[in-house]
Request: fold
Amino acid sequence: MYAKTTLPSGIRVITESMPAVRSATLGIWADVGSAAEPPERRGISHVVEHMLFKGTSHRSAREIAETMDGVGGNLNAFTDKETTCYYAKVIDRHVPLAMDVLSDMFLRSLFEAQELEKEERVILEEIKMYEDSPDELIHDLFIRTMWRGSDLGEPTIGTAETVSSVTPQELREHMRRHYAPNAVVVTAAGNVEHEAFAELVQRSFEEFTGSCRLVTPESPQAAPATYVKHKDTEQAHLVIGAQGLSVREDRRYVLAVLDTLLGGGMSSRLFQEVREKRGLVYSVYTFQAAYREAGLFAAYAGTSPENVRSCIDVIAEEFGRVRDERVSAEELSCAKEHIKGSLTLSLEASSSRMIRLGRNEFALGRDVTPEEIEQRVDEVSADDVQALARELLAEERLGLCVLGPVDENVIDRQRFAA
Reply:
């Protein structure tokens, strides 16, 4: 079901066939994200992403939108810290049209000054929207606090100052520096045939030549710290965590189990202790921020300002319990089945499979089958989980961020670093 071809130009074409569906999702990936940006150009990868929708030498922005809407397709893109992806989901017979639109955007976007001026205003509104979403903002505050001084720790969206100062020439230069065949992967999942799709990519990118220096993944080490930011919100939002594992780390399957049993569902320890038993939150969970050479692992909770200290205490206690007590066979089995079930359900969507193809290629250079994942998850032992918890969640490694109408006095200075 998985196939990979490297074209003469250096572009990698990867497909996963799903003959039982009528859809296909295809994506063009560039091996660059916000972690490759200098401070004065923070957010430029995201600006490029926006501008590729604003018109080419063949189509106006309206024509791009109308072409995809006219076949019921979905056209979108995303920028993260290490990659940028432009993708489309269409009925299988419209794959050639979707590739024509995507490659046109990728190769022939104009970056007109007038369009850039308008799109910068759009992105400034996006930044304001983000600032008004404290449950999202707290995650970036935590990453920046733990990885302070690194490019990987800075927000992908950039700042109002850096976004407003970008010029069309700088956008073109960014693409010349990072968008070259050896840094591009084209993926497709759904009702596609590999050889035919590879030929389609070859024709669509015939004019795309050259090479570029690939970005070296950054590997910052977490420096535990505490950061409290006052913000006039109804809830206070907090994240507690530490250095985690990279997506290349072999123990990532152990961390997946630890993540699941601590905060991965309604039966998880944090959900039961913080929400069900004490009624302190609506939302509480654990998460991983995992990249090629670095990672963070943490717990999030949103609660009333007067309950912040209680939330922190309960989460820290649960971190301590998973460090000090061996997880039961029943709880371990439940976490494993949760991971495997969630994986299987996600694979029913061609878009999820397309994204998996791209991320696995950049992170690992190979396909990781569901069968391999299930086997590695099944191999995780209770001793593995406890050993990793002792390593990652030691008290001296923990950092804390709080955002909301709270003051510094909510922090137990004996437990968390200044």
